[in-house]
Amino acid sequence: MLIPYGPSYFPVLRSWINDPYLLFQCAGTDFSFPLDEEQILQYQYRHPDRRLYLGVWNDQTPFAFGEIIPQSVGSVRLARLLVGEAQSRGKGWGESFVKELLTEAKTNFKAHTVDLFVLQENLAAIRCYSKAGFSFVEGEGLVLTHEGKAYQILKMRHRS
Which positions ≥6 away from 47 have C-beta within 8 Å? Predict the structure, then answer.
């Protein structure tokens, strides 16, 4: 189930992001490590049209974090995708969370096209997104630099 992210959940988010590379992997270069609440608040202030979500179990315990970014009419981008606890990854929960975000994108953003970016070396995430119905968009990747190293970023798309 999805719920809107709010400041009261920041301690959970901070506990999940315990190293600079993980923050880069899920958030690109928009945030710096260690992540603090002020960074998130400033980001939300600068981008009021973007929506942050948590995936939660029926007991309201958060297990994932993500964002929907409106693009053009009928198009959104998913970003900042993270299954929280390391031991929770690789169990299909990310795929379920992404599918819930797809439903949210179609229902509340009227999106027919949903894009996302993923590190080329993040094979687990690529498998997750592929299982959720995403495929690569050739020629639309980019390169980001983190701690002096260049990383290839691939674009993936889901069409409904």
Answer: 69
Q: How many residues does the chain have?
A: 160
Domain spans, the chain: 2-115
Count of other CB atoms within 10 angstroms of residue 3: 12
- The single-letter code of the amino acid at 88 is S
Beta bridge partners of 65: 54, 82
What is the C-alpha to C-alpha distance for residues 152 and 31, in angstroms, rounded to an integer?
A: 18
Q: Could you read off the pLDDT tens digit of each residue along the chain, which spans 160 residues?
A: 999 999 999 999 999 999 999 999 999 999 999 999 999 999 999 999 999 999 999 999 999 999 999 999 999 999 999 999 888 888 999 999 999 999 999 999 999 999 999 999 999 999 999 999 999 999 999 999 999 999 999 999 999 7
Query: Domain 2-115, CATH 3.40.630.30 — does that match?
Result: yes
CB 83 within 8 A of CB 53: no
Cβ neighbours of residue 1 closer than 8 Å, sequence gap 6 or more: 55, 56, 57, 58, 100
